[in-house]
Amino acid sequence: MPELLEVKNLSVSFFTPAGEVHAVRDVSFSLKAGQVLALVGESGCGKSVLCRSVMKLLPRTAKIKSGSILVNGADITHYQERDMHKLRGKLFSMVFQDPMTSLNPAMSIGAQIGEAVRVHRPRLSREALRAKVLELMALVGIDRPEDRIDLYPHHFSGGMCQRAVLAIALAGNPAILFADEPTTALDVTIQAQILDLFRDIQRRLGTATVFVTHDLGVVARVADRVAVMYAGKIVETGTAEEIFYDPRHPYTWGLLRSLPALSKGRDSLYAIPGMPPTLVNPPRGDAFACRNEFALAIDYQEEPPMFQVTDTHYAATWLLDPRAPAITPPVGGGS
After folding, report:
1. What's the predicted TM-score (pTM) here?
2. In angstroms, rounded to a whole number, what is the distance separating the alpha carbons of residues 24 and 46?
């Protein structure tokens, strides 16, 4: 199956009064049609910036310094706004974190979904437009859409608003959907429903999805493949099974140990010690070294390459070097 999206050696920086912030550093990944790729990591590791870079939704202070972005084999790295405007919504679309800030409180839900539909199908009659809006509302699980099409966002719960935002994102039938922590602002009982909805829609429509989250528990529910990000770089990538049952990077170990399910019977949740480094001046060597209880001397000197574990599993850690001492991982089944 050909690659729908290919990002190669992408580096993105923000130029601020404090200096250049290296937000995304030499990142490469690919996505096939119908796949769900989860980008996982702590806040500030570059997940959202990476997605916004692909869609060219970066502020003026940001710049793509190097690398390429290919969609269906076409290089869109240097596309101007007028070119990107033709792609957004139709080729790829995005669902943002907080649905309440994504919706216009002065417009009805139906009008906002209809507005997104009309951008891509301007010649639809009023009757056909209404039918399409009702179809999208039903698709995302809004019950009794005929009764709710004229309601406003304040009439909807957070979960219902997120369903409406998803309907807007799907209005152009995009091939790629970016979901930027879409469950963070929701109650935990609603989160599971929204995650199941994303997975159901992905299977029904065949939409490729990049799911951004800091919660590995979310990943288990939706992802086919996982890319773990730290300090602007992808440090481990593999199938969901490989990341959960055979993790190889110490940062991935820390994220998994932080899951409540692995802390049953303990007095407190595990927390990775320390804080992520500032990306104004990224540290020498492995950026995770100062927080890594298994760090080697070389971690403070040289940045590790991506070591291959299997055909689909790679990790950037010196612990995978044949010369490294044997370490028993605190989680998973790897060695």
Report:
1. 0.92
2. 6
Angle, helices 126-139/158-169, rounded to nearest 10 degrees: 120
In angstroms, rounded to a whole number, what is the distance separating the alpha carbons of residues 25 and 6?
16
- Identify the three-state secondary structure at position 3: strand
The pLDDT, as a whole number, for residue 333 is 58
In this structure, how many other beta carbons lie within 10 angstroms of the beta carbon of residue 311?
7
Q: Which residue did the predictor score with more confidence, 218 or 4? A: 4
Residues in the chain: 335
**Side-by-side strand order, sheet with 19-32:** 19-32, 3-16, 62-71, 74-75
Contact 238, 311 (CB under 8 A): no
Beta strands 62-71; 208-213: pairing state? unpaired
- Six-digit token string for 136: 């999208």
Alpha-carbon distance of 211 to 218, in angstroms, equals 9
Whether 289 and 295 have beta carbons less than 8 Å apart is answered as yes
Tokens of 20: 């250049």
Which position has the token pair 């992802």? 223
Percent of the chain with pLDDT over 90: 79
Can you list the positions of beta strands (E) in 191-297?
A: 208-213, 225-230, 233-239
178-231 tens-digit pLDDT: 999 988 877 878 888 888 899 898 889 999 999 999 888 788 888 999 999 999
Q: Are 202 and 191 in contact (CB under 8 A)?
A: no
DSSP 8-state code for residue 36: E
Chain centroid offset of residue 213 CA: 6
Structure tokens that stand for 213 in this block? 């989250």
The torsion angles phi and psi of 120, rounded to 5 degrees, stand at: -95, -20
**229, exposed or middle or buried, with CB in 10 Å at 0-12, 13-18, 19+?**
buried
Q: Tell me the DSSP string of 72-115.
A: TTEE-TT--HHHHHHHBTTTEEEE-S-HHHHS-TTS-HHHHHHH
